[in-house]
Design a protein that fits this description.
Blueprint: E1 2-6, E2 11-17, E3 23-30, H1 32-36, H2 43-64, E4 74-80, H3 84-101, E5 105-109, H4 110-116, E6 129-134, E7 139-146, E8 149-155, H5 161-171, H6 179-186, H7 209-220, H8 224-257, E9 262-265, H9 272-277, E10 282-283, H10 294-300
Parallel strand pairs: 1-4, 4-5, 6-9, 9-10
Antiparallel strand pairs: 1-2, 2-3, 6-7, 7-8
Helix pairs in contact: 2-3, 4-10, 5-7, 5-8, 6-8, 7-8
The protein binds 5'-O-[(R)-(carboxyoxy)(hydroxy)phosphoryl]adenosine (KG4) and zinc ion.
Length: 321
């Protein structure tokens, strides 16, 4: 069994996954409430909270899996990208657990983890496929031909799609992180009420910062009562613009590569309009879209393990290689 640990941002997560990809436990403790009053993740606050939560969350995952550390063969942990202080808490915990048990450790790339959310559970998807990875930190189009990695085809030149959702949600007074709340508010709005621009970048890249500025101006033109009345329309139109950009580029990439299958992963893959807009795509299961450790343990099955005790010197990295 693989014990996975993920602490790259504001979720403290641990999971137990078997070598064949069966999820025995998947525990996620979100710190969102803690950061909400600051309107975003405060790195130092996140690190301190991970430190408090990592042991209880690992214990809970083992209990849920009806396992003990004796049953664990490998410890997998997110090495990056993410907040370095936050990553270091998970990495140190993983090193300590593995070292104490003389187990091997597998350092996992967080983005590879998101892709590997497709490789577990009952409806697993196998390469090759074209993958849209849309999260709070990244927007990527990936050519996935093997379980162990991918080739980047396109990325965002500025904000990530999830970041665009969060910034829009904030402008509409929905708090942090606002992607899911904006998704819910949009259900009551008219997606064609506002014609928000979708930037067309050359190649297969994305850009979302202009869209956010357009929302700023639209909101600025309304007095508080009008804003209250139009909030759902603004949310629906804004969401439509993001989803359109994601879907257009994904379709273009699929055509360019001649991909027979398209998959969508990452926090934004939980978005109801995006899911509905790509009916033929393989969608990551909802509990595995946002950050979790099951996807990290899943990815670890395709990464070379580092034998005891060679991993003690491993460091975390903040940005994608
Ligand atoms: O993958 P994730 O948990 O963390 C990163 O690796 O960044 O993604 C979090 C992002 C946040 O920006 C959040 O607002 C967004 O995913 N998100 C959504 C929805 N649920 C989460 N965005 C749009 N619609 C949703 N339903
Ligand atoms: Zn993530």
């Amino acid at each position: 069994m693989i014990l996975g640990i993920e602490t790259s941002c504001d979720e403290t997560a641990a999971a137990v996954v078997t070598a064949s990809g069966e999820i025995r436990a998947n525990v996620v403790s979100s710190q969102a409430d803690l950061h909400a009053r600051y309107g975003g993740v405060v790195p130092e606050v996140a690190s301190r909270r991970h430190l408090e939560l990592v042991s209880p969350v690992v214990r809970e995952a083992l209990a849920e899996a009806e396992a003990t550390l004796d049953d664990v063969d490998t410890v997998a942990v997110t090495q990056g990208p993410g907040l370095v202080g936050a990553l270091l808490v998970g990495l140190s915990a993983a090193k300590a657990l593995a070292w104490a048990r003389r187990l091997p450790l597998v350092p996992v790339d967080h983005l590879h983890g998101h892709v590997a959310s497709l490789y577990i559970g009952s409806d697993s998807v196998e390469p090759p496929f074209l993958c849209l990875l849309a999260s709070g930190g990244h927007t990527l189009l990936l050519d996935v031909t093997e379980h162990s990695g991918y080739r980047v085809l396109g990325t965002s030149m500025d904000d990530a799609a999830g970041e665009a959702f969060d910034k829009g949600a904030r402008l509409l007074g929905l708090g942090y992180p606002g992607g899911a709340a904006l998704d819910r508010l949009a259900l009551d709005g008219d997606p064609e009420a506002y014609a928000f621009p979708v930037a067309r970048m050359p190649g297969l890249d994305f850009s979302f910062s202009g869209l956010k500025t357009a929302l700023v101006y639209a909101v600025r033109e309304l007095d508080p009562a009008e804003l209250e009345r139009r909030r759902a329309d603004l949310a629906a139109s804004y969401q439509r613009a993001i989803v359109r950009a994601l879907v257009e580029r994904t379709r273009a990439a699929a055509e360019e590569l001649g991909s027979e299958r398209v998959a969508v992963v990452g926090g934004v893959a939980a978005n109801s309009e995006l899911r509905a807009s790509l009916p033929d795509a393989a969608l990551a299961p909802l509990p595995l879209c946002t950050d979790n450790a099951a996807m990290i343990a899943s990815a670890a099955r395709y990464v070379a393990l580092v034998p005891f005790p060679d991993y003690l010197g491993l460091d975390a990295y903040a940005t994608a290689a």
